[in-house]
Amino acid sequence: METRSFADYLRTLDDAALISLFTHRPDLVTPVPPDIASLAVRATSAPSLARAIDSLNAWQYQVLEACAVAAEPFNEKQIAALTDKAALFVLPGLIERGLVYSGRDGLYIPTTLREVLGNEIAGLGPQSLAKLSLKKLDDAPAQAKKALDAMVWGPPRGTVADIKKPGAGVAWLLENDFVIVANSHTVLMPREVAIYLRGGKVHKDLVIQQPKISGDKRDAQSIQLAAIANVSTFLRWTEEILNFWAQEPADALRSGGLGVRDLKIISAHLGVDANCAAFVAELAYLAGLLSIDADDRILPSSQFDIWLTQQPSVRWESLVSQWLITSRVSGLVGKEESKNVAPLGPELDRVAASSIRKLTLRLLQENPEIAPDFQPLSALANWHMPAKRSGGIQNDYVQWTLREAEWLGITGQGAISKYGVGLLQGAELDEINDDLPKPVDHILIQSDHTAIAPGPLEHEVAQELAILADVESRGGATVYRFSEATIRRGLDHGRTGDEIKAFLKKTSKTPMPQPLEYLIVDVAKKHGKLRVGNTSSFIRCEDSALIAQIISDKRLDILQLRQIAPEVLICQHDATDAMNILRSFGYLPAGEDSQGSLLSGPRIQRAKSKARPPRIIGDFDRPDDLQLTAALRALRTGEKSSHRQSTLRNIAASALGSLPRTTANETLDILADYLQNQPATSLSIGYADNNGLVSHRIIDPLKLSAGSLIARDHATGEVQTFRIARITGVAAI
Amino acid sequence: MSEGPLIVQSDKTLLLDIDHPLSTECRRAIAPFAELERSPEHIHTYRLTNLGLWNARAAGHDAELVIDTLIKYSRYAVPHSLLVDVAETMSRYGRLRLEADPIHGLILVTTDVGVLEEVIRAKKIAPLLGVRIDPETIAVHPSQRGSIKQSLLRLGWPAEDFAGYVDGQAHEISLKQNDWKIRPYQELAAEGFWHGGSGVVVLPCGAGKTIVGAAAMAHVKATTLILVTNTIAARQWREELLHRTTLNEDEIGEYSGAKKEIRPVTIATYQVMTKKKNGVYSHLDLFDTHDWGLIIYDEVHLLPAPIFRFTADIQSRRRLGLTATLVREDGMEGEVFSLIGPKRFDVPWKEIEAQGYIAPAECIEVRVNLTHDERLEYATAEPEERYRKCATTRTKRDVVEELVGLHAGEQILVIGQYIDQLDDLSETLGVPIIKGETPIKEREKLFAAFRAGEITCLVVSKVANFSIDLPEATIAIQVSGAFGSRQEEAQRLGRIVRPKVDGRGAKFYSVVSRDTIDQDFAQNRQRFLAEQGYSYRIIDADDVFQGKI
Question: Which domains, from first to last, does chain B contain?
Answer without folding.
Answer: 6-92 (no CATH), 96-162 (no CATH), 184-354 (3.40.50.300), 362-545 (3.40.50.300)
